[in-house]
Amino acid sequence: MLGFLVLLLALALGPQVVLSKFLSITFSSTEQCGPLNVTFSQGTMPSASPLSLTVVPFNSVPIFIPIPSSSWDDHTSTGAYITFLPLPAGATFIASLDDGAGNSMGAISDVIRVQSSNNTSCLPATPSQPADFFAIGGGISQCEPFKLQWNSSVTSQPPTIRAFIPKGPSFHVQQLPGGGNGQASYVLNASRGKEIAFLIDDGQGNKQDLDLFTIGGDTSSSTKCLLNNGTHGKQRPTNRNLSK
Length: 244
What we know:
Blueprint: H1 2-19, E1 24-27, E2 35-41, E3 51-57, E4 63-67, E5 72-73, E6 78-84, E7 92-98, E8 112-113, E9 134-137, E10 145-150, E11 160-164, E12 170-172, E13 174-175, E14 183-187, E15 195-201, E16 207-209, E17 213-214
Antiparallel strand pairs: 1-2, 2-6, 3-4, 3-7, 5-6, 7-8, 9-10, 10-14, 11-12, 11-15, 13-14, 15-16, 15-17
């Protein structure tokens, strides 16, 4: 009898977990100092709130934009939000709709290129290049350890790395035991040939987005890290087009 009740409880709670994600998230194209529209549906608002938009411009710093609860309509089970990004024409980025705990609520956007416009109201008068706090030592291959290096006088703890696959998932990269004195080792649980971007955060205010890159490897590459690893462990063909 107890087992039957547990089964009923699991069936009752199971779909709620699935529906906490949005099956449909759409990101519009955008132009310099113009609007970026985000719409989402086929799901429910997460218990961890508020929603936020994480924007990852390549070779720059991330942008985090809170999304008010008023963006969601309970009657239609749809949401929409409009924001403006301080990015110049030609910049490329990907975006993620996240819950209050920083977890993606669905698929990451495709790569979006900021189109040109005559509007410069969102741009600084004197553009500056963001500081490079972190650097990857060498290439990154499927299931192979790689080193992240940083200035130990700026931050003492190994940073976290969040990975983003365009039109795919987002996940945190596994740090290997040890590390310190300005370097730590990680292993990327994703298959070769995939394009991916990193957001690195030391938890002390220093954040940096690396450029989009392709995971290396060949037929002899280890696959141990891909076992039971969900979507980002599966090999899929890459065919990326910049959103216009």
